[in-house]
């Protein structure tokens, strides 16, 4: 059987973009064998030609403007990993309208423009997939979509930021200082380009807004989330929680209250008999409760280049295989 070629454009060749390029190179044969799809990095949008050269990509793949990618008929799927709200959101809209499938890991752009982006994907009949935007490598949204098909979700609760979980775990388990733990999270590629997004709870609020939008079938904006980060948590509080047999965790929760929903991100004492207290390092764990299925818990690495690229690659394969049929439709 001849493999079908799938042209991939990567917007941004930073921590995640370069991991995606590497994963396509290293996993390409496996994907071809399993799905008959040959993924090819057709283009990358990157300001630094040196960085692209270091990623072992041929010079002709480097584009310095989006228009080149939009007009390239060889590009089927665009992977957006620029980060930040703009120009990422605008670039995704333009890619969808130009007939490209879009895969993104960018929770900020998605959380702030969810309605607009999902509507544009439906109108263009192109896939918009964002598994890596919540829970890193955990197959979370694919499970969420499956549960949503037959349930009303009543509650979502868990740890959705790997950097803060890594910092709090290092402080509790190793006695590491906050600044040292944060620097290590940055070195390992867990943190956002500006780690304020992690430690002040914005990143968790974006992820919660995405989960709540799916839960309620409307665009829930991140500023609807009552948000507190971990910068006010002291080493003494972390140690005292451990002495009580539990742990302080940055907990994100969405609770239905009639037709309304309460959305919160806050450092919370979790007692030792709750499994969230034992989720360490860069791991996330999310409990989804459906009115039929009951509670379902998913856990795995929530941050880092390898797990994130894994989720992105599975979205690329799904976009190439089923296209817009995989999309979430708000209000449905
Ligand atoms: N790190 C992780 O574990 C995870 C990250 N994510 C998400 O993945 C996305 C990417 O994160 P990450 O790779 O860590 O970020 P990086 O900052 O490492 O990479 C972003 C890249 O995009 C480039 N870029 C940004 N804006 C532009 C532009 N306008 N034109 C051309 N290039 C541009 C940057 O170049 P330059 O340096 O020149 O600005 C940089 O190379 C973010 O949305 C993040 O939230 C999601 C899940 C996990
Ligand atoms: N900075 C984020 C990366 C993944 O979404 C995190 O630490 O969770």
From TrEMBL:
Residues 139-317 form the Homoserine dehydrogenase catalytic domain. One of its GO terms (biological process) is methionine biosynthetic process. The keyword NADP applies. GO terms for molecular function: homoserine dehydrogenase activity; NADP binding. Keywords: Amino-acid biosynthesis, Methionine biosynthesis, NADP, Oxidoreductase, Threonine biosynthesis. SUPFAM superfamilies: Glyceraldehyde-3-phosphate dehydrogenase-like, C-terminal domain (SSF55347), NAD(P)-binding Rossmann-fold domains (SSF51735). NADPH binds at residue 107. Pathway: Amino-acid biosynthesis; L-methionine biosynthesis via de novo pathway; L-homoserine from L-aspartate: step 3/3; Amino-acid biosynthesis; L-threonine biosynthesis; L-threonine from L-aspartate: step 3/5. The active site is at residue 207. InterPro entries: Asp/hSer_DH_NAD-bd, HDH_cat, HDH_CS, HDH_short, NAD(P)-bd_dom_sf. L-homoserine binds at residue 192. NADP(+) binds at residues 12-17. PROSITE patterns: HOMOSER_DHGENASE (PS01042). This is Homoserine dehydrogenase. It comes from Sphaerobacter thermophilus (strain ATCC 49802 / DSM 20745 / KCCM 41009 / NCIMB 13125 / S 6022).
């Amino acid at each position: 059987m001849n493999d079908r070629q799938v042209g991939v454009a990567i917007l941004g060749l930073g921590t995640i973009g370069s991991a995606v390029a590497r994963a396509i190179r290293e996993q390409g044969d496996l994907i071809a064998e399993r799905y008959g799809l040959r993924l090819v990095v057709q283009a990358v949008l990157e300001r630094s030609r040196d960085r692209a050269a270091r990623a072992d990509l041929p010079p002709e793949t480097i584009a310095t403007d989006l228009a080149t990618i939009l007009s390239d008929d060889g590009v089927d799927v665009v992977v957006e990993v620029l980060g930040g709200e703009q120009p990422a959101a605008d670039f995704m809209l333009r890619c969808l309208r130009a007939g490209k499938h879009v895969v993104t890991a960018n929770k900020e752009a998605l959380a702030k423009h969810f309605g607009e982006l999902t509507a544009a994907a439906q109108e263009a009949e192109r896939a918009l997939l964002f598994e890596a935007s919540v829970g890193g490598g955990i197959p979370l949204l694919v499970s969420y979509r499956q549960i949503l098909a037959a349930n009303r979700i009543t509650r979502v609760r868990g740890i959705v930021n790997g950097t803060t979980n890594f910092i709090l775990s290092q402080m509790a388990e190793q006695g590491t200082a906050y600044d040292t733990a944060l620097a290590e999270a940055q070195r390992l590629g867990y943190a956002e380009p500006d780690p304020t997004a992690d430690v002040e709870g914005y990143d968790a609020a974006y992820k919660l807004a995405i989960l709540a939008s799916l839960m309620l079938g409307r665009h829930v904006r991140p500023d609807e989330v009552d948000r507190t980060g971990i910068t006010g948590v002291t080493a003494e509080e972390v140690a005292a929680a451990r002495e009580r047999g539990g742990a302080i965790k940055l907990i994100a929760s969405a609770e239905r209250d009639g037709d309304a929903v309460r959305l919160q991100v806050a450092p919370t004492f979790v007692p030792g008999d709750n499994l969230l207290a034992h989720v360490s390092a860069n791991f996330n764990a999310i409990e989804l409760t459906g009115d039929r299925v009951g509670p379902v818990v998913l856990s795995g690495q929530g941050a880092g280049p390898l797990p994130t690229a894994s989720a992105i690659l599975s979205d690329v394969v799904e976009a190439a295989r089923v296209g817009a049929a995989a999309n979430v439709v708000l209000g449905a």
